[in-house]
């Protein structure tokens, strides 16, 4: 199977998951008070939309290097999408409970962090499966680009695990780290995009 | 009509149906208790997302062998999509009632099983219509691949019917069988994917 | 602008509108009673999914004959999509009220019928705009095919208006007519598909 | 990266955001009274669907002039989509509160206007980034077309800001201006579409 169908289906799931996030932004009662009061919903929406957007950009970069996919890769990708499409749920938990603090906020942030960590795991599994002995790579895939992606993926899981664990000390600090990671990624990859990094 | 439009529309419906499943994962009240307590929702989400993913993989395999489609096939495919897009409803029933046991759990699992059985029936109708006298097959479609798909589809309906009927003895056993079938399919087709099986 | 982008966007809206219909199928309370009791929801889901599917098939047939589109056609198509994406709302009204009968059922069916009539109007406007002096047609578009579509579109508006007006006599008869029209269309175009009719 | 993937993902988000608008059209109680009574929901649905449709048409025009995109543009586009996918929320606020008048209506309309203004800002940022020193333009992009788009984008932000500020005088006048702007855009670009304006 070529990669075009996989890309279309994956882009569809990612676009839908991102766009569905708005369904959890709602205000009850008088909008004046509510519209300001529910700012954690806006923040959670913006964070998860950006996270899914980054995932889409990275997924494109990976798929663009592949010449074909096999069934194992398809199912790894399916598990990956299953995790990404799950993101709206912990997003809502965080939006609902972050302000309350305490155990509820902590548990919501833990759910968020575990979901992103699982996503990073699924991502790494897909990537290392694809490049193992050049299994699924295009013949024309540039080894330096491949090595660059591998290098940039390596810190992903430890960083996500660490950010998640911070929730045991402070829920706010943990979610702020996820926000900072997304922002850093966008800025860094916009500012210092080298040629060898695929778009 | 070529097959590209059919593929795009079908992939869209499948991607949306899978991603909408998250809308039925929600927790009320304190997340600590809820987040653990609602595990049947996670399980139901994972099961149906995987089932729809498998359907997408198989649908691709079938469409990839076709050279063109006619109106009858279009409407068979539409009925097929109608059934697949229905899956979120019995999924929610199962998630809501499986833990309660008794008649409610049984009826929810029956609804789930009947939906999957209908899906298998629609699938078989499409497939046998398409290959009858090579009606819609590409000239280049490999007869061994076609025969392999036919062989792998044959047990589908009886297995789904049997798994559904198990609900009269045990709802939990029935839904576990649907889970085992999905898992088996993913593992088997990943492990032993032969060359003659299309991706 | 070529027609490919228009097709992708339109197919996306149609696929989403059809798949969103499942969100209005839900059962409260004990599933045993509910699952049977809510049959109007299943019927409404099946009807509107089929209607949107037929719209998609026809839309493809029309777009397939066009060589290019202009801005006016884009906005006509947008209005058309606006009406089609509205279908889930009157579908839910019908599902909620058809069994109650009386004024509520009548009004729900009227809303359904008016929506489908508007859709037919938008369709005809698009079609006659596109073919007027061959404005947007492909040079290779077969005049017999074009004439066949024109012929098959002509009765659309009067039939929809008549079916809608039947609601003043009987809501059930009116909605049954919409169901019969969809079924007839699927069967007729499957059974007697002539070569000059585009898929 | 070529522009095709960006187009597909963006069209997906826009199609979903537009189609999700119907989820906020719902009627409680007896449909007869409700179906008429909830007209602000229909109006809000029609307005935002049209606004998103216009955005899609313009987005196509812009992307069609680009030869490639870079990471910065990808993330600008992502922010743009984040704002557009947010539109269903202020749409619902307006539909819920416009009739009540007073502070609630004003705040709802302000939220709507601020969202559209942000969208216009994101649009302008993307556009001026893309054309700066011809950075992302196709070599074949017609300078007159580019200059025409620049000219038509310039008044966007001031007009949106002005329409938003009108809400402090009258909520109804402000939302009517947004409606008039959409209508004017559709009519003007349909009627007087010049050749140099890309579709």
What does this structure look like?
The structure is a homotetramer of 199-residue chains. Chain A has 199 residues and is an all-alpha fold. Chain A is 73% helix and 0% strand. The radius of gyration of chain A is 18 Å and the shape is elongated. Chain A has one domain (4-191). Residues 194-199 of chain A have low confidence and may be disordered. At the A-D interface, helix 1, helix 2, helix 3 and helix 9 of A face helix 1, helix 4, helix 5 and helix 6 of D.
Q: What is the structure about, briefly put?
A:
The structure is a homotetramer of 199-residue chains. With 199 residues, the first copy, chain A, is mainly alpha-helical.
Q: How far apart are the first and last residues' alpha carbons of chain A, in Å? A: 23 Å
Coarse structural class of chain A: mainly alpha
The ordered string of helix (H) and strand (E) elements of chain A is HHHHHHHHH
* Oligomeric state of the chains in view: homotetramer
Give the tally of structural domains of chain A: 1
Strand fraction of chain A equals under 5%
**Radius of gyration of chain A over all CA atoms, rounded:** 18 Å
Largest contact between protein chains? A-B, 32 and 36 residues
Net shape of chain A:
elongated
Mean pLDDT of chain A: 88
Number of strands of chain A: 0
Largest sheet of chain A: none
């Amino acid at each position: 199977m070529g990669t075009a169908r996989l890309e279309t289906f994956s882009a569809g799931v990612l676009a839908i998951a991102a766009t569905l996030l708005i369904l959890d932004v709602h205000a009850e009662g008088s909008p004046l008070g509510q519209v300001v009061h529910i700012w954690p919903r806006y923040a959670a929406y913006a964070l998860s939309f950006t996270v899914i957007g980054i995932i889409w950009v990275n997924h494109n970069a990976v798929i663009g290097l592949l010449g074909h996919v096999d069934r194992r890769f398809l199912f790894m990708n399916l598990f990956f999408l299953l995790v990404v499409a799950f993101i709206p749920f912990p997003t809502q938990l965080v939006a609902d409970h972050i302000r309350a603090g305490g155990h509820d906020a902590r548990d919501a942030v833990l759910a968020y962090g575990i979901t992103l960590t699982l996503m990073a795991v699924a991502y790494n599994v897909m990537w290392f499966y694809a490049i193992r002995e050049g299994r699924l790579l295009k013949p024309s895939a540039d080894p330096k680009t491949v090595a660059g992606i591998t290098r940039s993926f390596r810190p992903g899981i430890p960083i996500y695990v660490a950010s998640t664990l911070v929730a045991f000390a402070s829920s706010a600090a943990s979610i702020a780290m996820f926000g900072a990671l997304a922002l850093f990624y966008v800025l860094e990859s916009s500012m210092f995009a080298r040629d060898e990094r695929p778009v």
